[in-house]
Amino acid sequence: MAQIPEPAARDEEHQAAEAAARIEADRVLLEHLRQRGFTGPSYLQFESALVDYALPVMKKWMRTGEIFKQCRQQGRPVHAREGLSQRDRDDRHELASLTVAHALKHFRDHALIKAKWRPTGDWLF
Q1: pLDDT of the residue at 89
Q2: Average pLDDT over the chain, rounded to whole?
Q3: Residue 16 CB: number of other CB atoms within 10 A?
Q4: How far apart are CA 8 and CA 48, in angstroms?
Q5: pLDDT in tens, 53-103
Q6: This protein's superkingdom (predicted)?
Q7: Are the C-beta atoms of 78 and 67 separated by less than 8 Å?
Q8: Helices (H) and strands (E) in the chain, counts
Q9: CA angle at residue 39 from 124 to 110, to 5 degrees?
Q10: Residue 38 φ then ψ, to 5°
Q11: What distance in Å separates the CA atoms of residue 83 and residue 72, rounded to the nearest whole number?
Q12: Model-level pTM?
């Protein structure tokens, strides 16, 4: 008689299958965008989705101070003169928006166009 997998094993298998499906969908999207030169309506929709994800993350990191840890881990330490958590919400939003806009351009120019990024999340240096 076949043994029924434990619920935890089924959850791990399900998560692995979902991760594989996401990676494949990202691979297909990346190829679609590459064929169009990372321009046009498809790229704008992709870029909008990146902003929808990145902006709230950046604002939270600024509010909590996590941004300093993240920068330090990337070898780009930033020293705060005053805590971002104390700043006005509008200032934080403006700084986060500028940061995300700069990061989008960098990601497009270096990761996508120069093919330095893979859907698995790996970077080729």
Answers
A1: 81
A2: 87
A3: 10
A4: 36
A5: 999 999 999 888 898 899 999 898 887 766 555 657 888 899 999 999 999
A6: Bacteria
A7: yes
A8: 4, 0
A9: 20
A10: 50, 45
A11: 16
A12: 0.77
Structure tokens at 3: 């043994």
Rounded CA-CA distance 28/26 in Å is 5
Sequence-ordered list of residues with C-beta below 8 angstroms from that of 76, at least 6 positions apart, any chain: none
The mean pLDDT value for 32-52 works out to 96
Angular region, 37: left φ>0, alpha ψ -120 to 50, beta rest: left
**Residue 71 phi, psi dihedral angles, 5° rounding:** -65, -45
Alpha-carbon distance values, 93 to 9, 51, 54, 86 (Å): 42, 13, 12, 13
In a 3-state reduction of DSSP, which class is residue 117? strand
**Tokens 């790229």 appear where?**
43
Report the amino acid identity of residue 78.
Answer: V
